[in-house]
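Inputs:
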Amino acid sequence: MDDLPEPLKAADFHILLVLLETPRHGYEIMKEVERESGGRVRLEVGTLYRLLARLLDEGLLEQGEEDGRRRNYALTRAGRRALKSEAERLAGVVNLLRVRKLLPQGDVH
Amino acid sequence: MLRLFPPRFRRTFGADLLATFEDHWRESGWRSAPGILANLAESAFLERLSEPRRARFGSPELTARQGDSLVMTFWNDLRFSLRMLRKAPAFTVVAVLVLALGVGANTAMFSVINAVLLRPLPYQESGQLVWLTEILKSNTTDEITLTPDFMDWRTQNHVFTAMAAYNAFDSTLIGAGDSIQVNTVKASAALLPLLRVQPLLGRTFTANEDQKGNDQVVMLSYALWQQNFGGRSDVVGQSIRLDDQLFTVVGVLPRDFYFPASEPVDILKPLGKNEALEMQRSDGMSFNRNVIARLKPGVTLEQARADMEVVQSHLARPAMLSASATLTVKLLPLREHLVGDARAALLMLLGAVGFLLLMACANVANLLLSRAVSRQRELAIRGALGASRGRIAAQLLVESLALAALGCSGGLALAIWTRGAILGLLPKTIPGLDSLPLDFRVLAFTMASVCASILVFGLGPAMTGAAGGSPSLNAEARTFSGGSSRQLWLRLSAAAQMAIAIVLLTGSGLMLQSFWRQRYRDLGFRSDQLLAVPVHFSRTRYPSGTKQSEFLDDLMGKLCSIPGVAGAAVGTIPPGDFHATNNIRIEGRPLAAPINRPVARQPSVSASYFQVMGIPVLRGRGLLDSDMPNTEPVVLVSETLARRYFPGEEPLGRRVSVSRDSWWRIAGIVGDVKTAGLGAGPEPVIYFPYHQSGRVDTGFLGDNIGILVRSVVDPGAVAPEVRKRISQLDPSISIGDMQTMDHHLNQSAARPRLAALLLGLFAGLGLLLSIVGLYGVMSFLVRWRVREIGIRLAIGARPGDVLRLILVESGKVIFTGAIAGAAAAFWLNRLMQGLLYGISPADPLTFALSIAFLSAVGLTASYLPALEASAVDPMTTLRAE
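Outputs:
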């Protein structure tokens, strides 16, 4: 039971997701998360930084170099792993749902 | 905003967060500002909460989950509560309004108390400042200090660093074209150093200038300097003309200087006493109305009192005092002297708003209770789904908390909003009322009152939660069969509100009558259509009594010829503000010891005074124009003088004396007038005709005389013409604050009026709350018993019986409340004794009327629920089972 990863929270998952390709700074993360989630996950400034603080604490993110006053945030190796295992978990869930015919075979929106 | 976050968080993210915030702000604009800011505050709050835990455990895995669980539970509860409150807008609005009213009234009242009683006076180390006076215990208890005694105090005490005396009076500042009346104070040179005040320009007085003859110097107030001297700095060294004398300006007082007196002061003069002559303690010695001193560091008021009593006991006795006379010394903290009787009134009002808050809480508790009952199903479902009773109770508590927070913000807003109105209402004679700061004390008080209210109104639902047992989904749960303790609680709460309403109603009833009696009863004269014109009369221009009489005769003639004027007179303008202490002697009686001699106020008036004022001549005759210097000297005496000094004797025809060799025959007795203040009893008065007395002074200090004009039209309409005629006759005469007598009286009664007004307002609100409370409880009880009522109706009770049943029920509640309230009021109103004039705190009529009124209103309010009960359709009720 111990090494079974807990599911990531939706907001955490989206933050990690938008950092997968490139490090970004705070405001970019906000905008990207909102865009990629289709507006379902909206982070206000305060919430965003609380989440960033926790993700840094948990070692899933690291602070990159400074760009003026702004700082970039990037995935760590652990972050990448957490994202991957969450993705696998989700894929497993989707498969299960397809088997149970709750979702159609093929594309998922 | 960033400061709200814990330091560690701030260090790591501060600049970056700010940059992001700015980007976001730029893009979304101010429209979303509230959301962003609220979110920031919320995040900061949560971050702070989880901070210690995170630091303690160190391990990130542990902290994130565990730290969040407690905080987030609370947070989720809060969000859920707010959602629930939003879903019941009527309930929320009423509850928040009622709470805001209670908290707002308390905060506003407390901010006044804070400004008047708690904030330090605007002087350095003002706690060391003490006000001193001698009390002359004889027929009166005047608080005045003999100048030689003041001088001895100053040199012989061991407890003060400095001592200063001052006296206020009016004088006329004669400018280039016009003359204006200015408030002047003669003060010891030591006063400003004692208060630790530095002049804005120039210097303060020197000790030498306290001596008569060296005292032709003045200091100007900042306001006078700005208005009449254009704020020019070369004013120092200039000469100004005050009352026909020249004075040199030596300094200007700072802008924020507050003089320790009831009115702002325009001009400061040295005390100017002939100290060598005063020390002889002859009949010519003068006295001072105010002495203040600064305690040495570390000396308490008690030590100072003890020291001063020793000093006082060693003073030389003035020759004019008899062996039996006592001159005692009294010390008060300066603030206490300045605030005076305002303290008692303010504390009484705070008590009243405290009651109001209690009622507001009881009302909210009832609302919560009736809501809890209608939510029983919801709670039962949540219980069935596994929520423990503790969880549900915690959630309900958070809901109360959210309600309290909303009420608190509303109350604070209400307090801030009404601040301007309160400031406008308050008389300016109470120090510290130039502003009402909402400082930490006020905010702390508000928080405390909110906490107290949560305790009170949270108690109800909590208690019923315990009494009702665990909620069940059973259908029986909806009929509340086991709710007898709840019913009792509700009835008690309604009765308690009735009781508080009685306390407030009787209190305000008493205050109102007291004010009414002060302002309107026993005035002794007709105050309508009367114009009061205080004028400053130059002694140097009219040195002799004959000159003064000639001028006044002339003036009366001129004023009487104004169209619309029925008559004009010279004399005192009532009410005065102290009792007279001038001795008189009655012919044929042995000379009593000076301290036991009869005293009387001794104004000189024109013959027309009594007719113009409407003071009745009870016996004998009035003053006549023929009472001239060459006829026999006559006086009129007041009813009180006749009764007090001629008990069982005929005063008419007897002679009295006020100085060595002049005897005046009593020609008539006139009605009493409130000459010693609206709140004081009648006093002995002797009225002299000014033609014979050769003097026209009416005040104690200064040279003011009163002119009274009775008009047949609105007195305000003749005022400009009166002013014009006086100036035409002698432009050097300065006219004071010309007012209609009614306005003048209203000003004199400003404090009792304000107290009555505010208490009346609070009583009105209390009545409203108690009625709403009673209505709520009664209609709730009816709904509660709807099944029982249905059955009663089904087995043959008539609607009239049901109506009577419910009315009797509420009658019991009202009766219990009224009895308890009357008992409480009887006990509490005694505390108001000192504030009441001419009415007993246990006035039976006030009590009876309050109870009758509240009962009538209460029964009317319960008529609606009773009607509802009698209209219950038995079939519907029974079918619902």
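Remarks. Chain A touches chain B at residues 25-27, 30, 44-50, 52-54, 56-59, 68-71 (CB under 8 Å). The longest helix of chain A spans residues 77-99.
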